[in-house]
Write a structure and sequence with these properties.
5-stranded parallel beta sheet; two-stranded antiparallel ribbon; single chain; disordered N terminus; elongated; 10 helices; alpha/beta; 215 residues
């Protein structure tokens, strides 16, 4: 049974075969996806790319175009796109190249509708998760930028596992001052717990070695 997809998302179809484009457009619109279709990579590049969880169903071979080369050009341009490839006569080296470059799937025509739907759902969910990770990392970096130089130094030492007393000795401060820094860091980073703060520090790559190298 095919369930409708309730969340806003976008599916791009790039295929020179109009019957494929029309069929896929009807299919995904019936499942509440937004869909836009294009006859070539060049036509796609003339349009704005929706800033929502998205994926592309891309034909490997089109007149004057190669889907694998287009995948590479998107990566080089910094355009993040989850791709499901369709091919009329794919081979193993081609599929390996596509998957190594981050493709979600490599399906041979005629494809099973459910297989394609599963791949598209996987692609959009991956894109949604990556967007959430990028948003969280942006928030963490914004908070980190509000820390003073001393607070950043204290954070790197605390996150490395040192106790307040040990941090105080390394920084040449009184232990109470380190405790004050620690409280200020927790507030500025919006950390719910010290364990939460350590996770943020690890995500940022903050460590005593990195911090010392920067000072």
């Amino acid at each position: 049974m095919i369930n409708k997809h309730p969340l806003q998302s976008m599916v791009y179809v790039v295929d020179d075969d109009s019957s494929i484009r029309n069929s896929l457009t009807s299919l995904f619109r019936s499942l509440d996806f937004q869909v836009e279709s294009f006859s070539s990579p060049g036509e796609f590049l003339k349009h704005d790319i929706a800033d929502v969880p998205r994926c592309m169903i891309l034909d490997v071979r089109m007149p004057g175009s190669n889907g694998l080369d287009f995948q590479a050009s998107l990566l080089e341009a910094g355009i993040e796109m989850q791709i499901v490839f369709l091919t009329g006569r794919g081979d193993i080296p081609m599929s390996v190249r596509a998957m190594k470059s981050g493709a979600i799937d490599f399906l041979t025509k005629p494809y099973r509708e459910q297989d394609l739907l599963d791949s598209v759902r996987t692609a959009i969910e991956r894109d949604r998760k990556q967007r959430e990770i990028r948003r969280l990392m942006s928030d963490i970096r914004t908070c980190f930028a509000t820390l003073s130089r001393r607070e950043k130094e204290a954070l790197s030492l605390l996150a490395s596992g040192l106790l307040n007393k040990q941090v105080a000795e390394k920084m040449g401060l009184a232990e109470i001052t380190v405790k004050i820094h620690r409280g200020s860091i927790m507030r500025k980073m919006h950390a719910k717990s010290f364990a939460d703060l350590v996770k943020m520090s690890e995500a940022l790559g903050v460590s005593e070695r990195i911090w010392v190298a920067q000072t």
